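REQUEST FORM: STRUCTURE PREDICTION
Request ID: SP-0412
Submitted by: Lab K.M.
Chain count: 1
Length (residues): 252
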Amino acid sequence: MNSFYSQQAGCTVRWQDLPGHGDPVVFIHGLGCASSYEYPRVVCDPQFGARRAILIDLPGSGYSDKPEHFSYRTCDQAQVVVELLTHLNLDAFWLYGHSMGGSIAIETATLIQHRLRGLIVSEPNFHAGGGMFSRGIAAQDETTFIESGYAAMLAAETSPWAGCLSSNAPYAVWRGAASLVAGVQPDWAAQLLALKCPVTLLFGELSLPDAEAAEMQRHGVKTIVIPMAGHSMSWEKPSALAGAISGCLTDG
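STATUS: Completed
RESULT:
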C-alpha cells in the first residue's frame, strides 16, 4: 500500500499500484466503498489481461485517512485524484469509476483531458438528485446519520457492501451522499458529453431499463451491458466486468 499527502484533503491518501503492462487503469470507487476492497478480484482476473492497475482509496474510505474537516464533495474528491495522478507523474492512463466514483471520474477527466487515454464509467450519477442509497442517507441530517443512521444501515446490510462500508467514516458517507443529491454545474452528463477522449458506459443487465442509460445512448455514448449483474457488478460478476473494461482499452 502506497501513500502520499493530499494538500486538497489535508490528509494521507493511500493506493495500490498493481504491476502489469500498458497504460495503467486508475480505479475510483463509489459511495461507502473502497478500491482496495472492491477491485483486486477484478484486476487479478485473467479477463483483465494483466494490465497495470492503480486502486485509489478516496479520503474517508478504506486505508486512506478520514479527516473530519474535509468536504467529501465529488468536485473536491476529483481534485484529490488529480493530485495523486500528478504525484505519480503519469503521462497517459485510463480512468474507471463506479457509481459516485463514476461521477468523480467524469470531473477528473475534465481536469486532465490532455493525459487521459479514455474514460470508462459504470452506472454513475449523471444528474442531481442522487440514487436510492444516497437519497436515503442525505434525507437524514448529518448529526443523526453519524449518531444512529450509519450504524443502523450497517447492521441492516447483508451484501458484500457491508465490508467496505464499515471502512468508511460516517461523516464521509453522509457528505458524499449529500453531494450527489446536490449535484454540480454543469452536471455530470454535460461534462461527459463534452469530453473528446473515448468514453464507455457500463450498465448491469439487472439495472435496466434505466432512463439515464437511454439518455446517454441517444447521445451516441458507447454502452456495454454486463449480463446477469446489477449495480454492484464488481462482486456480482467480477470476471465479466474485468473483460468489459479490458475490451475498452487500446495500447498507444
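NOTES: Residues 142-156 form the longest helix (15 residues).
Reviewed by: T.R.
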